[in-house]
Specification:
The chain is an all-alpha fold. Helix content is about 70%, strand content about 0%. About 10% of the residues are buried.
């Protein structure tokens, strides 16, 4: 029985990085290469939520280490976020993150349901930001 328990412990330890990092990395690359935008949204939402979860864990580490099933709960949660049958990351993003962004920032544009009430000033501000972060032609050329 002790060998079986050791085996389960190793599988449990390896399943986290595979489920939380390796599969999402692979699926993200495949999403970028596919013409569909639906899978792009799923994986961008996953990385946003995974980053938030990681930051939350860092802040609450002293509390979470007292909860013995935390790692298992996290694995189940991330499994729900990752597995394409559930599209949990896209669901959480749509239902909670996007809703709160709209509520508290007021100017978040929803490219699915383009809001015609967007002011020209917020569009101008967005265009300036895009121009600021977009590299100019020849800016990164090596001479």
């Amino acid at each position: 029985m002790s060998r079986f328990w050791t085996f389960l412990t190793h599988v449990h330890g390896i399943s986290g990085p595979v489920l939380m990092l390796l599969y999402p990395l692979y699926a993200s690359v495949m999403a970028i290469e596919s013409p569909s935008k639906l899978d792009d949204e799923q994986w961008l939402a996953y990385w946003i939520l995974y980053s938030f979860l990681t930051l939350t864990e860092m802040v609450l580490q002293s509390i979470l280490e007292w909860i013995p099933i935390w790692y298992t709960v996290k694995l189940v949660l991330v499994g729900w976020l990752v597995l394409p049958q559930f599209r949990g990351a896209a669901f959480i993003y749509e239902r909670f993150v996007r809703a709160n962004l709209k509520k508290y920032s007021g100017g978040v544009s929803d490219h699915h349901h383009h809001d015609s009430h967007q002011t020209s000033q917020s569009v101008k501000g967005k265009n300036k930001f895009v121009q600021f972060i977009t590299p100019k032609k020849g800016e990164h050329e090596v001479y």
